Amino acid sequence: LHDALPISDFRKERETVDTLYAFEDIGWLRVNAHSIKQALNMWITKWTMAFVGNLSTHVLSTLNNLDEFMATVREGLQSDIPDGDEEMLKVVMAHIRDVRRRMDATGAMWEPLHECIALLKKHKYPVDDMVVANDVPVQDYLESAPITWDSTVNLTFLKKEEIFPLQNAAAEELKDTIAAFYARLKEFRQDFKQHAPDRKSVV
Fold first, then answer.
1. Which three-class secondary structure string do you get for 146-184?
2. What is the pLDDT of residues 119-144, one digit of tens each?
3. How far apart (Å, rounded) are the C-alpha atoms in residues 137 and 129?
4. What's the CA gap between 181 and 117, in Å, rounded?
5. CB 163 within 8 A of CB 90
6. Looking at 63-203, which runs of residues are DSSP E strands?
7. 68 burial class (0-12, 13-18, 19+ CB within 10 angstroms)?
8. What SS3 class is residue 198?
9. Mapping DSSP to helix (H, G, I), strand (E, B) and coil, where does residue 131 land?
10. CB-based contact 69:148 (threshold 8 Å)
């Protein structure tokens, strides 16, 4: 987990600062380092909380984005496609495509997100106050999200099977349209050759 490394480094730096003497005698001169130690610890705490805060933001934004994506896909896949409605067919096919593109990345993100939550807890971050999608506690959402995602994927494949005949019909219609276009083009070329004036008569 990439964020664990700098937080660990900051902890080591804090331990180093804590071992420094508040006062240091250099010959007859006594140096008061107490204020410097306080300032260093303040900055270490500030940057530690910044990293932890970024970690929290990453978890919440990732899960909220996933929730919005799944809601959009599920709503789109539940739409009926009237016969001949190519635009609606394209919309549904786009949802299926988007789910397939996200399958690998989504399946691989559960463990890192759990690790992020564990790290936040370790650093006393108020994880219980973190909520996702309609005020669901982040830990509860993360536990149920893989099931919801699998359900969305299954719905996608079911819809893919359902629209397969419509895709075939659309493909056949497209072939017929292309064939008709080339037939008209061929007819036009032949007509042009027969009736177009030759170059000599134009000159």
1. HHHHHHHHHHHHHHHHHHHHHHHHHHHHHHHHHHHHHHH
2. 888 878 888 889 998 889 999 999 99
3. 7
4. 60
5. no
6. 131-132, 136-137
7. exposed
8. coil
9. strand
10. no
